[in-house]
Automatic annotation (TrEMBL):
<protein>
    <submittedName>
        <fullName>Transposase</fullName>
    </submittedName>
</protein>
<dbReference type="InterPro" id="IPR038721">
    <property type="entry name" value="IS701-like_DDE_dom"/>
</dbReference>
<dbReference type="Pfam" id="PF13546">
    <property type="entry name" value="DDE_5"/>
</dbReference>
<feature type="region of interest" description="Disordered">
    <location>
        <begin position="1"/>
        <end position="25"/>
    </location>
</feature>
<dbReference type="InterPro" id="IPR039365">
    <property type="entry name" value="IS701-like"/>
</dbReference>
<feature type="domain" description="Transposase IS701-like DDE">
    <location>
        <begin position="36"/>
        <end position="258"/>
    </location>
</feature>
Length: 399
């Protein structure tokens, strides 16, 4: 189910006249960067961080390091910015923690969304690059995959942490690990485990309280492990699962496992549902839902079978769509569908981050990838939560 909801304006939607107000931007950006990069030990690191972040916000078009360096009022050599992102040994986790705390001061967090970033790459040298089949395109892409954690406010979805999906071959070959500077402690985790790690990290930061987790893991055949783990953590969730994911009908005494998609789209009466998007806009659609039980996963042992709601949008224009499972059996289907709509909004935010250079990282290393994602996330959060805009400086169109 890909709910059609509005997700807010992007940079290109900003009225041209608003871009001329750069003084408040500069003042507030200084405070923002001083708070965010306080953990960086050296003054030159903090200066490069502010320059890089401001350049991401100012530079139109492609965010190559040379264009970033030429777009700020006080130019910083391109090699300094490149070294700061690729080689400087600063820890991104304290920066992300400060970004999380700063973001939560701008509103009430409605839910935590986990969204995928697909970063196409040429060649095979960038860390984590591999062939990934894109269901929406029907073909395999050479790309990096990242999972981002988004704090969802009313109408705004803010990225506050990331995990890079590393296929096993990247971690099993010492040559690849050394070349990409992957730390020894990093091990292979499937997407569901990376999503759980993001949830646990944000929970430990005290940022998300008891808000539900929303994610699309419709291509992860092991998603049952995530659902069981969230149940054990008493964490509410609305998760899109594969159509072949096995569930048990709750209204049958001795049911056989059946595919979630088969059950969700079985002949039956669909309800008219009012979906309220993250920005408050509403739309009407048709949804079919039922109560199911989840088969036990190995780590669950002899514990109880979990009871959930299974639902899917019945729309000829988008059929078959996503199939969702939630442990909030007490909520109305309108509320569940509205939570599911947040996932589309978070995915749209990933797309909008492309305007701030999400796809333009020139490095290949593991630390460099996390440094870049941290800086782009900070620029996006600052832009969306402060609504700050600037007049882009003319940058030379260098290669």
């Amino acid at each position: 189910m890909e709910w059609s909801v509005a997700t807010g304006a992007s940079i290109s939607d900003t009225p041209p006249g608003a871009r001329e107000k750069s003084t408040p931007f500069n003042a507030s950006l200084t405070d923002f960067t001083e708070t965010l990069f306080e953990s960086l030990r050296r003054a030159d690191q903090r200066r490069c961080a502010r320059t890089y972040l401001e350049a991401l916000l100012r530079t139109p078009g492609k965010k190559s390091v040379r264009r970033l360096a030429g777009s700020v009022p006080s130019p910083t050599p391109a090699h300094s910015l490149r070294q700061f992102v690729n080689l400087s040994p600063w820890d991104w986790d304290p920066v992300m923690e400060r970004l999380t705390r700063w973001a939560t001061g701008h509103g009430t967090v409605r839910c935590l969304a986990v969204a995928r970033a697909v970063l196409p790459k040429r060649g095979e040298w960038s860390v984590g690059v591999h062939g990934w089949f894109a269901p929406s395109l029907g073909r395999t892409l050479n790309c990096q995959l990242g999972l981002g954690a988004f704090l969802c406010f009313d109408g705004v979805q803010t990225p506050v942490d990331w995990r890079l999906v590393l296929p096993e071959f990247w971690l099993g070959e010492e040559r690849l690990r050394r070349r990409a500077r992957i730390p020894d402690a990093v091990r292979h985790l499937p997407p569901w485990a990376l999503a759980l790690d993001l949830v646990d990290t944000l929970t430990a930061r005290g940022a998300v309280g008891a808000v539900p987790v929303v994610a699309d893991l419709s291509d992860d055949s092991e998603v049952g492990h995530l659902l069981a783990a969230l149940f054990r953590r008493r964490r509410d969730f609305v998760i899109a699962v594969p159509h072949h994911f096995k569930v048990l009908r709750a209204d049958v005494a001795a049911p056989r496992a059946i595919g979630a998609g088969t059950l969700a789209y079985a002949p039956g009466a669909a309800e008219t549902v009012l979906v309220t998007g993250p920005d408050g806009r509403q739309c009407i659609t048709r949804v079919q839902d039922t109560t199911v039980r989840l088969p036990r996963v190995p780590e669950q042992g002899s514990g109880p079978e979990y009871v959930c709601r299974l639902f899917a949008e019945v729309c000829p224009d988008r059929w078959p769509g996503l199939v969702w499972i939630s442990n909030r059996t007490d909520l109305s289907i309108d509320d569940l569908a509205s939570l599911a709509a947040v996932q589309s909004a978070a995915a749209a935010s990933v797309t909008a981050m492309g305007e701030l250079g999400l796809h333009d990282f020139e490095g290949r290393s593991f630390p460099g990838w996390y440094h870049h994602m941290t800086l782009v996330s900070a620029a996006y959060a600052y832009q969306r939560l402060t609504h700050a805009v600037t007049a882009p400086h003319d940058a030379p169109d260098r290669p």
